[in-house]
Amino acid sequence: MILFNYQPLAKACQTFVAMLFIAFVFGCKQPAKTPASKKDTVVKVHNKPAPATSQAPADTAVTDDECPKGAAEPVLKKSVFPDARFVLQPDHRTGIETLTLKDGDKLTIKQSGCEYYILTFQFETSHFAADTTDITYWSEVTLSLMRNINKGLDTFLDTNEALNKLSARIEKAKANTADKLVLGDEIDFGGPDPRQYLIIERISQLADQRYILEVSLYYGPI
Predict the structure, then answer these.
(1) How far apart are CA 8 and CA 218, in angstroms?
(2) Beta strand 95-100 with 106-112: parallel, antiparallel or unpaired?
(3) In which residue ranges of the chain is pLDDT below 50?
(4) How far is CA 185 from CA 50, 200, 208, in A?
(5) What is the pTM of this model?
């Protein structure tokens, strides 16, 4: 009598049934996942660029209509300084005025700003000499140079008061070394609404024993 071994056949049947079950489960669930995944992706891609697009207009530059300060105009009186030359810059808010003084010193006045009205006086002189770190000395020189041209200035700013306040600040620094004057100090001469103040911005030496001094008057915000 021939005996058959049914164990391999049983195992094969079990494997076949398991494969059918897996295929059935996978086939039923897969279609439900696919649409949901595609829908989420579309929503995210569509929504991301929106904030950047909506914010773009807020990043535009300030226009002439939005600038409180008007076009720059000369501040040197032609009756006092007939050789002064004024050039309005392309932005119309900035003006550059140049003049060679009788003693050979050169003066450049820059009028600038938008929310602030700013007058920057740059003197190029060879009539003084000292270490550029001697702020007391150079602040007195700055005061002297500004007073020499003050009579020829045509500006709504109270330059007399500005120079008086600078003089008082210099004397205060002399009296108390702990309260010395430094570049960038803001010296109020009017305000507070709007505020007006003076700053000695720069002291530097050129190669030919000439020195550059810069002092600015600020008015604002307008």
Answers:
(1) 100
(2) antiparallel
(3) 1-6, 8-10, 12-13, 17, 20-61
(4) 46, 7, 28
(5) 0.70
